[in-house]
Amino acid sequence: MAYLNVESAAYPWPKLNGVNIGPLRLQWGGSEKRGIRENQWTYSITAIDIVQTPATRFAAIRPSPDLAADSPVLEGFVTFQRVCFSCHTLNGAGDSQFGPDLNFPYSLVEYLGDERLLAYLREPQSLHLWPSAKMHPLERSTVSDSELNDLMLYFHHMSRRKTDFSREAAGK
């Protein structure tokens, strides 16, 4: 459940790294149970649009419906949506144009392998030294080792569920 907090003029919020975080801030209820950390709450909000979930909007990113409800692949899918999907597409699906597609034409696990991919996700500069790279390390405070393992299972699962798409069909 998301809550919109409104800053009180009488009690303004403290600055974050010298920046005003008001007047609106989105906070997630039950966040400690869902692994949503305070550093992921959004602040300085200027507008809110309500849209369907990524899984509803983009069928191409969904794991197989045959998976058990407690499958670690589904947990990895949750982590993918929380951590990766804001910058990347998968199977050509998604709104972002910032980072590359993570499954097409080759999945991350196909061309990097598990060991290099895990190292890259924890520290992107470990694979290629690229000073202007935009990807930040997935620190353990953001993605636990267990969540990262589930994310890897999701990537492996999706490498077998590729959607052949063209840039024209994907609207890019």
From TrEMBL:
InterPro entries: Cyt_c-like_dom (IPR009056), Cyt_c-like_dom_sf (IPR036909). The keyword Transferase does not apply. It comes from the Bacteria. Residues 71-159 form the Cytochrome c domain. Keywords: Heme, Iron, Metal-binding. SUPFAM superfamilies: Cytochrome c. This is Mono/diheme cytochrome c family protein. It comes from Paraburkholderia graminis. The lineage of its organism: Bacteria, Pseudomonadati, Pseudomonadota, Betaproteobacteria, Burkholderiales.
